[in-house]
Amino acid sequence: MDKENCTVYVGQYFTIEWYYDQKGNSQAYDYFLNVSSEQKRKFLILVKKMGDFGKIYDKTKFTYEGDKIYAFKPQPDRYLSCFTKDKKIIITNAFWKKKQKLPQNEKIVTIKYMNDYFARNQGDK
């Protein structure tokens, strides 16, 4: 996956992109490709709202998870993300939610991917 193919949605307020590593892999995008059509639809509705309006008021659908990590929450999935200075939201990783609290291993993965993204895209921090 190259930079031109990582865009999920371009809205009036934000551009939402998949994170991809140096080899072109994207865990979040791969996860998205393997969920049902209904799950994809729920996620894309949230992405469109955030991109077009800059905010999702329903905290059951989008929340701050600490450490500059935010979560899109289309049930039963979680898509973890971060914001950049240039009005982008980078979706780092995704998983099927099994527990109420954010699993520590998912948070660690998100932080690792965020650090990698910002190291490779210095101006976006």
Strand order, largest beta sheet: 1-2-6-5-4-3
Work out the radius of gyration. Answer: 13 Å
Query: What proportion strand?
Result: 25-35%
Q: What kind of sheet is the major sheet?
A: 6 strands, mixed
Distance between the termini: 21 Å
What letter string, H or E per element, gives the SSE order? EEHHEEEEH
Count the beta strands: 6
Helix proportion range: 25-40%
Please describe what this structure looks like:
It is a single chain. This protein has 125 residues and is α+β, with helices and mostly antiparallel strands. Helix content is 33%, strand content 26%. It is built from three helices and six strands. The longest helix is centred in the middle third of the chain and has 17 residues, at 37-53.
Summed up, what is this model?
33% of the residues lie in helices and 26% in strands. The protein is of the alpha+beta class.
What features would you highlight for this structure?
125 residues, alpha+beta, six-stranded mixed beta sheet, 3 helices, 6 strands, 26% strand
Topology:
Elements: E1 7-10, E2 15-18, H1 27-33, H2 37-53, E3 62-66, E4 69-72, E5 77-83, E6 88-96, H3 104-120
Parallel strand pairs: 2-6
Antiparallel strand pairs: 1-2, 3-4, 4-5, 5-6
